[in-house]
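User: Assemble these into one structure.

Assistant: Restating your components, then the assembled model:
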Amino acid sequence: MAAEVEVRRVREGSPWTGLWAVVTKEMADYLTGVRMQILEALIVLTAAGTVFAAAENLRTTVGQDRFLFLRLFTVQYEPLPAFVGFLAFLVPLIAIALTFDTVNGEFNRRTMSRVLAQPIYRDALLFGKFLAGLFTLALVLMAIWLLVFGLGLVRLGVPPGGEEVARSLWFLLATVFYGGVWMALALLFSVQFRQPATAALSAIAVWLFFAVFWSMIANLLASVLFPMRYGLVQEVLAQSQAALTLARFSPITLYTEIALALLTPSVRAFGLLLPMQLEGWILGAPLPLRQSLLLVWPQLTGLIAITVLLFAVSYISFQRQEIRA
Amino acid sequence: MTEWVVETRDLTKRYGNVVAVDRLNLRVAPGEVFGMLGPNGSGKTTTILMLLGLTEPTSGIVRVMGLDPARRPLSVKARVGYIPDQVGFYDDLTARENLIYIAKLNGIPRADAYRRIDEVLERMGLTEVADRPVATYSRGMRQRLGVAEVLLKRPALIIMDEPTLGLDPEAARDFLGIIRDLKAQGITILIASHLLHQVQAVCDRVGLFHRGQMVLEGTVEQLARQVLAGGYRVHVETAGTPSSILEALRRVPDVTKVEQTGPDRYVVEGHRDLRGEVARAVVEVGGYLRSLHLEEPSLDDVYARYFQEVEHGGGS
Ligand SMILES: Nc1ncnc2c1ncn2[C@@H]1O[C@H](COP(=O)(O)OP(=O)(O)O)[C@@H](O)[C@H]1O
Ligand SMILES: [Mg+2]
């Protein structure tokens, strides 16, 4: 009782007052902005290119593969990488490009104090900006998803199965969460740095670090921590396990694993497998969707946890800032 | 407590070693125009930020319409309009779109919002340009759009930070006219400015700020009387002057000082308006009176004189 009264005295009304006003305004900005049009063109072109190439390649196997549509996402047709690879690469860029100047931009345009002089909490502004970015990303990805399925229908000439639709929708959701991580990162920098260029560069630096260097560092660290002394199987296992664990600190690894398990139903585990672990498994038999989801659940919650953590840091930092512009 | 629209008690804000606002006791009564005047860096903006809960006081108490902005931020901000220094808008949106966003943030129902937006745009003379991007607006138009925006929420109090800064003289005069209109409507207004002479004309009361403290407070006249020993200066111009005029002027009762500023020009200082007495004195000694006018006490003078005294006299 007393605690309840205390809470009420500390905070008047809902922290989400005005949230939807912020979300709709920001989304309208994103969707009509030139920046968004450039990003859309970029992603539509890559989607169309890779999927078209994949479809050409897959036409010969129509009727042999139960998960033909899912292969549209994963099949690689030289010299283009698979569509999933493109997404793992492009989604962070889109997320960063959308959010890096969202908070500092308000300060630079001197609109921040005017907006926060309205009867809303800072919570609504920050969360609204984040949600708007996420919704925008979801909208774009949804459009691409439809594009892929449309292209698949036309080029392959067969309709997708129910499980394929379900799996690819889960994959879509995971991609949005993956984008959420990078969006929260860019949001954090946009709260921390008054210069949008600094915020953008910092976010890109973090992304480059994980995209290019982290797997190398993970392998290096693993070989230092678990050196091969006698050439034993246990040593090989320990080292690769360590490398995998380290690699999983990168959201890119988490996302790649999720994509792999969701889009390739025959994937049952990640990393090195020993022959005895395979015993009793019918190799190549696809997992039901539920099992695949269970397999990637830790990765999925991992992505969400990183997002929540990054957002919380931005939130605390933003609450304390003085609004002088 | 609730009779004041704004009340602070020993309000203090420190940034490290810098004391931006120092034990400020500010009171603004309903319906008045109060000017927080003082040079740059004297703590005016910081005070405003604390009134709106945009920065936290180090110590002291703030009440806006009887409410604590830290505890009841939504109620306070629903009734207070704030036009910041160099007010900014979303440049690629039109004025109307900018206002729609603010109306939504205030939770004004849509139909009502559109009506109010038309109303405030009309009132600020922006109807013609309402659908142009704000990027094309002049400084004066932005300032008026700022007023239109705060009027949307039908505020009881409007706080303006440096409202005439960067406006050309005509736009500044127009803007002061707008402030008078708002006052006539019964809205309490708090203005922070370092342009003393521009703003003094519209203020009912002013507080002079210096290094975070409000060192003087009252009507412009009160301050003039208090600081400029002879608050009223009468400028006299005569013709065909007998040399006795200077003597005659000195003999006028209540005169504190007479100064000859030209061959036929004099300045007479006193504690009250002495125009009548001065005119009679000139005529009685056979002089021709060409012109006679009372100089409005100027805050710039008050300010300059006050700090001269503080610095040279060592007193407060
Ligand atoms: N974030 C800050 N950190 C340190 N000092 C500050 C900060 N913001 C303002 N100040 C100092 O506080 C004082 C008051 O500033 P301000 O309230 O903006 O003055 P005014 O609005 O009267 O020009 C100035 O001396 C300024 O340098
Ligand atoms: Mg200021």
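Chain A has one domain: 7-320.
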